[in-house]
Design goal:
6-stranded mixed sheet; two-stranded antiparallel sheet; 5 helices; 8 strands; binds pyroglutamic acid
């Protein structure tokens, strides 16, 4: 099975992005039976979706997992839903700061991930690492790419499955901050468990993964 995993370049003044570091580690040491290619995406609205689309065209994968950094989250967040909105609190790496603009004008308000999100969360936990379902990927470039992927699947690639996982800071990013972190190696192990599970699971688990707020 062919898998494309993406991570992002650093943004917001950071010098590394653990999503890319972990994604490249997964491609170097892939789960058994999976042929994994890692691609680094620019943290730039529009450009990131174009880069993702050209990687999908080139590789023709069966599964796509996009990942990004969500500093402050305590574990891997398997995203359930992508929203059709760009609303940037900070400029992207090209200085763009869209406010309340649709990603695809006239497109659906939202798409669900086409991965078994609950089974993926359980797989990470079974590996002894923290994970949860997340009900929103935000409105910055990660949600933008997730929506772009879901729209590509919905409109052009019905057999492709894909989703998005947000990852915590790596330890060196939080030495002066009171925020949770996970080693890049642990993040990669969790992403590997997600890929292995998504590759073999067609029907998701029916276990609670919701949030009250
Ligand atoms: N995280 C940002 C964009 C790039 C990244 O790694 C986000 O959550 O939107």
């Amino acid at each position: 099975m062919k898998v494309l995993i993406t991570g992002f370049e650093p943004f917001g003044g950071e010098d590394t992005n653990p999503s890319w570091e972990a994604a490249s580690l997964v491609a170097a040491e892939p789960p058994a039976g999976l042929d994994v290619t890692a691609v680094e995406l620019s943290c730039v609205y529009g450009v990131a979706i174009a880069e993702l689309r050209s990687a999908v065209t080139e590789l023709d994968p069966d599964l796509v997992l996009c990942t990004g950094q969500a500093g402050g989250r305590p574990g891997l967040s398997v995203e359930r839903v992508a929203l059709n909105i760009d609303d940037a609190r900070i400029p992207d790496n090209a200085g763009n700061q869209p406010v309340d603009e649709p990603i695809v004008p006239g497109g659906p308000v939202a798409y669900f991930a086409s991965l078994p999100v609950k089974a993926c969360v359980e797989a990470v936990r079974a590996a002894g690492l923290p994970a949860s379902v997340s009900q929103t990927a935000g409105t910055f470039v990660c949600n933008h790419v997730f929506y772009g992927l879901a729209h590509l699947i919905a409109t052009q690639r019905p057999r492709l499955r894909g989703g998005f996982v947000h990852v915590p800071y790596a330890p060196h990013q939080v030495t002066a901050e009171d925020a949770p972190s996970m080693s890049v190696r642990d993040i990669a192990a969790g992403l590997g468990a997600i890929l292995a599970t998504a590759a073999r699971t067609a029907t998701d688990l029916k276990v609670a993964g919701g949030a009250i707020h």
